[in-house]
Amino acid sequence: MKYYPAYLDIRNRRCLVVGGGGVGTRKVKTLLDCGARVTIISPQVSEQLKELADDQRATIINRSYQSGDLEGVFLVIGATDDEKLNRQISRDAEKRGLLCNIADRPEICNFILPSIVHRGDLTISISTAGNSPAMAKKLRQDLEKQYGPEYADFLRLMGAVRYKLLRQAHQPEAHKNLFEQLINNGLLELIRENRIEDINSLLLNVLGEGYLYEALMDG
Known about the structure:
By secondary structure, this protein is α/β, with parallel strands linked by helices.
């Protein structure tokens, strides 16, 4: 199986998680972090899910799954320990043409969830096409050591620079050389070492006046 890699914009989209245990809780948190409107269906749910519902971040329906629960849903995740139920969720989703993931059952999913490294707006996804979750986990742990928090600050700064350039009627094609100069002249390393004066000097040399690290990061 060769999967087609894609990143989904699920902001404000209705997503359903069937199952309220540990696996379901992890899936719900990831969906919420990406801005989804999440409903959990399960006779029993974890304390963490109850807290999310109390904070009005998610909706809980305390009963068993029914096929009609997929009405109006964009994406569904099956996270139960009932194999028969998981397969029913998969069949129901397939009939409706919905995105469906069943935890630890790649053969009845139409997409799988990769192991993920997050550093601000940097997202690195690792997939073994379901063949070795243990290897995906190991690679994720290695990448977490390699890509530190400086990458989050770096991308935040680059985004602020790009936004300011666009507001000044620069053409996006003209940005490539500027960004390459910032990268090739060690901007990331300067951020890692918190060398603010040197960062500002580099910004001045490449971009000209009006680009100060502190102002860009606070903007």
